[in-house]
């Protein structure tokens, strides 16, 4: 099996498509079908969409005794129309207590205290003693800048990685290919992670794309590139010291087999740590840890089964013969035979 990793490269590419396509559906097509408007299927937090986030704790109310509709009505009476309410519960001195996260429009800086007091008055009159545990407000200008900066951060990191790998592998044949294959593998990881985020945004009302999500995404890119460099470095060493008669495919396959235990063992240590955080960590970092776990697995897979395999595709320029069966090497695996 390990001796044929490269010869089955189109199987690995097809598997990647199977992972990516459902996420792309929920990211692009599902919002268009359900709402009739083109938008990304991600639920942005107030960091990127603007608005205010209230965490309200109902001191004398048990979980389940208050409905989200009642809370929304109280906010509407305080001039905050169409609030989004998510109910939860917390333990206060060992006693379960009702808690709610409410998203509203942004607060007016000039009348912030007045608007806060209006909400407190409306909630207290309806539910009794309450406390505002958290109140965050981000204006539309700041949120737009945050979204633009997030995109620039991902693009900037990708360009820097491409240039660095191009320089680092300058002694290997065709060094630019190493940088581009690493970027394509990174794009695979981005699509997997963003697709999963779109599915979570669709089915899990508690999941939002926030600054922690961006942090997780950039960290995933670094993990992915780190593992890809390990594989590419061994490929470079084997290419420089290759013996006459050794095929390019054989060298790539041998290099992958040599680095496979190291790649898996290195990532497993991080996987175990993240799993422990997912199971026993706090609620506030659970989404961050879940995205990290998914990205870690995707990054390990793409480094071994995408990035290195793409070097073989590029070396043979296989895209030129994908639709010309008569000119293709009969021993070379193709997308058609793989499927």
Comma- or semicolon-separated keywords:
339 residues, alpha+beta, Multidrug efflux transporter AcrB transmembrane fold, Alpha-Beta Plaits, 2 domains, four-stranded antiparallel beta sheet, 10 helices
Summarize the structure.
With 339 residues, this protein is an alpha+beta fold.
Secondary structure topology:
Elements: H1 9-35, H2 46-49, E1 51-58, H3 68-77, E2 84-92, E3 95-104, H4 112-127, E4 130-138, H5 140-168, H6 175-203, H7 211-240, H8 248-280, H9 286-316, H10 335-338
Antiparallel strand pairs: 1-3, 1-4, 2-3
Helix pairs in contact: 1-6, 1-9, 3-4, 5-6, 5-7, 6-7, 6-9, 7-8, 7-9, 8-9
Kindly report the CATH topology of the largest domain: Multidrug efflux transporter AcrB transmembrane fold
Distance, first to last CA? 18 Å
Helix-strand string: HHEHEEHEHHHHHH
Topology, number of strands: 4
Give the CATH architecture of the largest domain: Up-down Bundle
Unreliable stretches (pLDDT < 50, length at least 5) are: 326-339
- Class based on secondary structure composition and strand pairing: alpha+beta
- As for the number of domains, it is 2
Task: Give the mean pLDDT.
Answer: 82
Corresponding CATH superfamily of the largest domain: Multidrug efflux transporter AcrB transmembrane domain
* Largest sheet report: 4 strands, antiparallel
Helix content: 55-70%
Strand content: 5-15%
Oligomer: single chain
CATH top level assignment of the largest domain: Mainly Alpha
Give the radius of gyration. Answer: 25 Å
- Basic shape: elongated
Number of helices: 10
What spatial order of strands do you see in the largest sheet? 2-3-1-4
């Amino acid at each position: 099996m390990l001796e044929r990793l490269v010869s089955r490269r189109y199987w690995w590419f097809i598997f990647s498509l199977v992972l990516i396509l459902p996420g792309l559906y929920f990211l692009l097509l599902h919002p268009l079908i359900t709402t009739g408007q083109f938008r990304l299927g991600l639920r942005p937090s107030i960091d990127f969409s603007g608005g205010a986030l209230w965490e309200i704790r109902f001191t004398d109310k048990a979980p389940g005794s208050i409905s989200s509709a009642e809370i929304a009505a109280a906010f509407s009476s305080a001039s905050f129309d169409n609030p989004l309410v998510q109910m939860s519960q917390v333990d206060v001195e060992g006693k379960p207590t009702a808690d709610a996260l409410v998203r509203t429009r942004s607060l007016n800086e000039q009348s912030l205290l007045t608007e806060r007091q209006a909400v407190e008055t409306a909630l207290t009159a309806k539910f009794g003693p309450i406390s505002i545990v958290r109140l965050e407000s981000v204006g539309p200008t700041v949120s737009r800048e945050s979204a633009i900066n997030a995109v620039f951060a991902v693009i900037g990191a990708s360009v820097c990685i491409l240039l660095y790998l191009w320089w680092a592998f300058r002694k290997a044949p065709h060094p630019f290919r190493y940088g581009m294959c690493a970027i394509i593998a990174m794009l695979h990881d981005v699509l997997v992670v963003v697709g999963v985020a779109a599915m979570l945004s669709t089915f899990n009302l508690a999941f939002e794309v926030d600054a922690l999500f961006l942090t997780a995404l950039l960290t995933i890119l670094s993990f992915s590139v780190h593992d890809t460099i390990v594989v590419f470095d061994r490929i470079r060493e084997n290419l420089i010291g290759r013996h006459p008669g050794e095929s390019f495919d054989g060298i790539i396959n041998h290099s992958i087999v040599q680095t496979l235990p190291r790649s898996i063992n290195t990532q497993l240590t991080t996987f175990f740590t993240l799993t422990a955080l997912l199971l026993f960590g706090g609620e506030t970092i659970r989404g961050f840890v879940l995205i990290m776990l998914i990205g870690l697995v995707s990054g390990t897979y793409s480094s071994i089964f995408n990035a290195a395999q793409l070097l073989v595709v590029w070396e043979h320029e296989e895209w030129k013969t994908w639709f010309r069966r008569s000119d293709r090497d009969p021993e070379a695996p193709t997308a058609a035979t793989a499927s």
